[in-house]
Structure formats: C-alpha cells, structure tokens
Amino acid sequence: GIKLINTEKLLNVFSISIITALLGGRLLHLLSSYKELTSWQDIIALHEGGFSILGAIIALLCFIPWYLKKINVPVLPFMDLMGLYA
After folding, report:
1. Separation in Å, CA 8 to CA 5, 28, 57, 60
2. What's the predicted TM-score (pTM) here?
3. 3-state SS of the chain?
C-alpha cells in the first residue's frame, strides 16, 4: 500500500492535536463567558471547569489541514484513512 505518513509524524499530529483541542476548547469557553471573569486567575482556573467542545472542534478543523500541509502530507487521503479508525 501507499504510505501517507510515518509513525513519528503521525504521533506528532496526534500530540499537537490534543493540545490544540484543549486550547481551542478553553479559549471559546473564555470568550463566551467573559462577563463572569473578574481576574486573571479565573482564566487559568481549570479546576473550576470550563471547556467548549465546539471550540475544540473548530480549533482542530483549522489546525489539522494547516499542519498536514506544513509537513507535506496530503490532507484528504489522510482524513480518509483516519476516518476508518474513528
């Protein structure tokens, strides 16, 4: 078969995607509840909750195609392959 991506690059995509999803989810939550923020400590208070799954999805939809193009991996065949595992 055709090898789209090596194991090291695939692990990098997964690792960076997890971080991107967490940051995107937190960012959208903060933007949608900015009126309740009273200090800088509220922004980093992860123990109080605050995560938007929509923010995570939007961040991943922006990040993954950009990163795949950056590392010279064809986007649509990669997404097709990952869809099988999802």
Report:
1. 8, 30, 24, 19
2. 0.82
3. CCCCCCHHHHHHHHHHHHHHHHHHHHHHHHHHCHHHCCCHHHHHCHHHCCCCHHHHHHHHHHHHHHHHHHCCCCHHHHHHHHHHHC
pLDDT tens-digit series, residues 34-48: 777 777 777 767 777
Place of tokens 């991943």: 60
Closest C-alpha to 61, from 11, 25, 37: 25
| Model pLDDT for residues 10-28, shown as the tens digit of each residue | 999 999 999 999 999 989 9
* Tokens (6 digits) for 48: 């109080």
